[in-house]
Amino acid sequence: MAKRTSILAAVAALVIIAAPALCLANRNEEDNFRWQDASREMDALPFTRAFIDSVTKEHLGGPSPLAQRRIQTNRPFMNGETLVYEVRWGLFRAGFVILTATPHRDRGLIRIGGKAMTGNIVSAIYKVRNYDISWIDAEGLYPHFYEHHAREGNKYRMDSYIIYDNTRNKLFLERRGLQEHETPRFTHDFMSLIYYVRSKPLNPGDRFEANLFTRPNTHPIRFSVQDRRETIQTAAGSFNCVKVELTAGGDGRVFGRRDKIEVWISDDNHKYPVMLRSRAKIGSLQARLVTIMR
Q1: Are 111 and 138 spatial neighbours (Cβ–Cβ below 8 Å)?
Q2: How far apart are CA 242 and CA 293, in angstroms?
């Protein structure tokens, strides 16, 4: 992972150095960037339902048991939604992130998808089309199956998956070979963690913790809801928000205990993640909500 982080750091440096020229040369092209079109480039990447069922049966002996815990919540995202974010890397627009929640009631699951795509300016140096999907329990909001599909630059391709065994407190990671990791029960991936946090009341002063697996370790992530409410203006509207600060209990692949991550979440029943600000290993990022579809 040190190599992958160094690549991202090098790309960041190149983008910052070349930004003035790129902005002048590609301003109109960037304005014409359509995240809808870029999103469709990734639609063929996910694993099939038959493949997921097959590998789950191979490792667990059958379907992953449902509803091993129950969270009393009725957030609107459980009925389906799409959230689109503009991502800025430093002073300029880096791309977009699309979060989707799709209920699969016949399976007792919610399919959480996250598409990340660079815009035209950054893609001129290093194009990214990544798709992460977490199949989470509709009752307990913990993951059963996670899949990662990466298409970066001209050569990097990766398709990997994780099967969570919440009965035996372990997970199976298939990434250029099978790995088995001991984990606490109901350990999260990045995608499932977002929606687990959204299920919380998030009252000022609240503090809670959840475990996050970032290869090759599991880390406790601590959440602190700040006392002050703020109004955040976005292209999707104006939102009264609570600010939640995240700290990691160890150094992971993307951020560590010294990195600062802040999320502004709407103070209503939707609990939209309205804005995220991160100062982490890969640089300073800000994601702001621009579109809501229900």
Answers
A1: no
A2: 22
35 backbone dihedrals φ, ψ, rounded to 5°: -65, -25
pLDDT in tens, the chain (294 residues): 545 544 454 444 444 444 444 444 445 555 578 999 999 999 999 999 999 999 999 999 999 999 999 997 889 999 999 999 999 987 778 899 999 999 999 999 999 999 999 998 889 889 999 999 999 999 999 999 999 999 999 999 999 999 999 999 999 999 999 999 999 999 999 999 999 999 999 999 999 999 999 988 999 999 999 998 999 999 999 999 999 999 987 655 555 566 779 999 999 999 999 999 987 655 688 999 999 998
Please report which helix (H) or strand (E) contains residue 11, including its range.
helix 2-31
CB distance 63 to 53 below 8 Å: yes
CA–CA separation, 33 vs 82, rounded Å?
19
Contacts of 80 (CB under 8 A, 6+ apart): 101, 102, 103, 294
* 224, containing H or E segment: strand 217-234
Is there a contact between 191 and 133 (Cβ–Cβ < 8 Å)?
yes
Rounded to an integer, what is the distance from CA 272 to the centroid of its chain? Answer: 14
Hunting for tokens 């809670």 — which residue is that? 208
Say whether pTM exceeds 0.90.
Answer: no
Neighbours of 89 (CB within 10 A): 20
In angstroms, the CA 246 to CA 263 distance is 8
Query: Cα 201 from chain centroid?
Result: 21
3-class SS at 155? coil
Q: How far is CA 55 from the centre of its chain?
A: 23
